[in-house]
Amino acid sequence: MIEQMSPITRRIVAVGLVILVVLLAGQFLLLPIGEAIADQHDDLSALRSRRARLVATARRLMPDSSTMPPGLAVAATDPASAGKRLQALLSGSAATAGVTLTQGVALPVAGSSRILGINLVATGTEAGLSSFASLVEHGSPVIRFQHWRMTMSDAPTTMHFEGFAVAAWQPKA
To answer: Could you give the C-alpha distances from 26 to 16, 32, 40, 111, 159, in angstroms and in order?
Structure first.
């Protein structure tokens, strides 16, 4: 059948087939990729919005350390030493509760030079992790978990505690 067509007709059919292949590739390859990118962009926007709300909540909930009575804020000469003191307080509470603690570096929370925040992960039994959270939240100086979650690990009696702890610091008098 193709042999009976003129050369121009063959070229037109070939160009039509190429266009058809390009359109099908766009429909089955490019369109899903574009939708996935759009979904990822929406997820990123939602996460940015959630982070902004959390930062605003942290500013609203944590008082400025200059208004706190002595003893309620971490006393230190500078933010770096306040961060080390906060890490030591968290490590001490973890040791008392019998849990293993992995923590990041304490850094000032966005929008406040006198509030430190630190990401941490603790591993232990449910009772140990509950004791750790209680020791941290009820101890002095005031340390609060801005957000946290507790999940089961692969071992049947072990759990993970992930959270973000915040505390005010003030210069030593």
So the answer is: 15, 9, 20, 46, 47
Alpha carbons 145 and 137: distance in angstroms, whole number: 8
The distance between the two most distant Cα atoms of the chain, rounded to a whole number of Å, is: 100
**21: part of which helix (H) or strand (E)?**
helix 7-25
Q: What pLDDT is stored for residue 66 in this prediction?
A: 58
Amino acid identity, position 24: L
pTM exceeding 0.90: no
Return the CA Rg of the chain.
Answer: 29
Asked: is 65-171 a CATH 3.30.70.60 domain? The reply is: yes
| Token code pair at residue 93 | 């509470």
Q: What is the pLDDT of residue 171?
A: 84
Q: State the Cα–Cα distance between residues 121 and 164, nearest whole angstrom.
A: 9
Find out whether 28 and 21 touch, Cβ atoms under 8 Å.
no
Residue extents of the structural domains in the chain: 2-60, 65-171
Q: Answer whether 144's CB lies under 8 Å from 60's CB.
A: no
In the chain (173 residues long), the average pLDDT of successive 10-residue segments reads 82 90 83 85 90 78 63 86 92 94 83 84 93 92 90 87 90 76
What is the rounded CA–CA span in Å between residue 73 and residue 157?
35
